[in-house]
Write a structure and sequence with these properties.
Number of helices: 19
Shape: flat
Radius of gyration: 31 Å
Number of domains: 3
Distance between the termini: 38 Å
CATH topology of the largest domain: MetI-like fold
Largest sheet: 2 strands, antiparallel
CATH class of the largest domain: Mainly Alpha
Structural class: mainly alpha
Length: about 400
């Protein structure tokens, strides 16, 4: 079959006529043996536009005919010929055999994901059943969306969702820009001794466990013996029970987390800044740019892809507020502000033995995270060109 559309000829060589080979000449040609030349940009765009249609014309079927333009020897409908698929499969197997040691390194991580991440997903189906341990997963009766409806109609649903989103967005707004600012400050610190001391001091809180951190908050902000209330007393202020006041709970949670994670989060930005070419800064200095101008016009554009990727990942876990820390900071006085979806799931699931109900809540939580990840990733790809996939 010969295809020599005028549109293709115009895209490649203006209004020149297309060359059409004779049947005998086409029969003498062996597929895959015809040399091809680089195609013009317009032709590449046209080929990309038609490649998604049913009548696909594959790369091996476009041949360059010197000055005459492109000709099409045959047009295949649907999939590639079986010989081509076998050749590709053979090439893939050959590459895997040549680099088998790399796949051996991937084997432990793959096994971990399959056993501990994807394997337990088999139990998600109990979210749609009334699970009884003596009946098992398969034997428990199917109830459909009953548990989801009960959760949405629960009087606590609104408060749980509000508290979860409040802590998540507050943590994101406060904690995301500070590692970037710290990395930029450290990058412009002229004295190496001061830079190393600042790095060590900012990295150290990351290694403090959650239990120890919450214990420090209880000691430092105690209304009786905490040094914070002692300082406030010097100015005539009454003692404040910070961990017992719902208005102060979110501030305690967020800023203690910022203090603990800012230094550690700046490492990846420092690594990205290390890739900035010194020649760019030298040229900017010669042109009279100050440090702020160099940061805005050189450093920030360089680390922008890293910033976008981390922002997308943070939005992908927007509903996953740290369960352990919130649970340890909870008490009867701040319950109205500290009860979030993860702590509620723990209480009704493990303490209340409502396994199907708690699984339905967890599944709802994960679906929201997945939707946020996809939406924010698509928006980031459209605005900046950087995305996870």
């Amino acid at each position: 079959m010969i295809l020599a559309p005028k549109k293709i000829c115009r895209l490649s060589h203006g209004a020149q006529p297309c060359y059409t080979a004779s049947r005998s000449e086409r029969n003498r040609r062996r597929p895959g043996k015809v040399t091809t030349k680089p195609r013009p940009l317009k032709f590449q765009k046209f080929h990309q536009r038609i490649s998604g249609k049913e009548n696909q014309i594959h790369d091996s079927e476009w041949n360059w005919n010197g000055k005459e333009g492109f000709i099409v020897e045959k047009a295949s409908l649907g999939r590639l010929p079986s010989e081509t698929r076998k050749a590709r499969r053979h090439t893939v197997l050959k590459q895997m055999k040549a680099n088998y040691f790399l796949y051996l390194f991937l084997l432990p991580a793959t096994a971990y994901l399959l056993i501990f991440c994807y394997g337990p997903m088999y139990g998600i189906q109990i979210a749609f059943k009334d699970f009884y341990a003596y009946l098992g997963i398969e034997g428990s009766p199917w109830v459909g969306l009953k548990h989801f409806e009960n959760f949405f109609r629960s009087p606590r649903f609104g408060a749980l969702l509000q508290n979860t989103l409040t802590l998540s967005f507050y943590s994101l707004l406060a904690g995301f820009p500070l590692p970037i600012i710290l990395a930029l400050l450290l990058n412009y610190t002229p004295r190496q001794g001061l830079k190393k001391f600042a790095q060590t001091a900012s990295y150290a809180p990351h290694f403090i466990s959650t239990v120890v951190l919450v214990g420090m908050l209880n000691v430092f902000f105690s209304p009786r013996s905490g040094f914070v209330n002692t300082i406030l007393g010097w100015f005539g202020s009454q003692p404040v029970f910070f961990l017992g006041d719902p208005k102060w709970f979110k501030h305690m949670y967020v800023w203690s987390g910022v203090w603990q994670s800012t230094g550690w989060g700046s490492i990846i930005y420092l690594a990205a800044l290390a890739g900035v070419s010194p020649e760019l800064h030298e040229a900017a200095i010669i042109d009279g740019a100050n440090k702020l101008q160099r940061i805005w016009n050189i450093d920030i554009p360089t680390i922008m892809p890293t910033m976008v990727i981390l922002l997308v990942m943070n939005f992908g876990s927007i509903m996953n507020v740290g369960y352990e820390k919130v649970f340890l900071m909870q008490n009867d006085l701040n319950m109205s502000a500290s009860e979030i979806i993860s702590t509620y799931t723990y209480k009704i699931g493990l303490q209340g033995a409502q396994y199907s109900y708690s699984t339905a809540i967890g599944l709802f939580n994960n679906i929201i995270n997945f939707v946020m990840l996809v939406v924010v990733n698509r928006v980031a790809r459209g605005l900046s060109g950087s995305s996870l996939w």
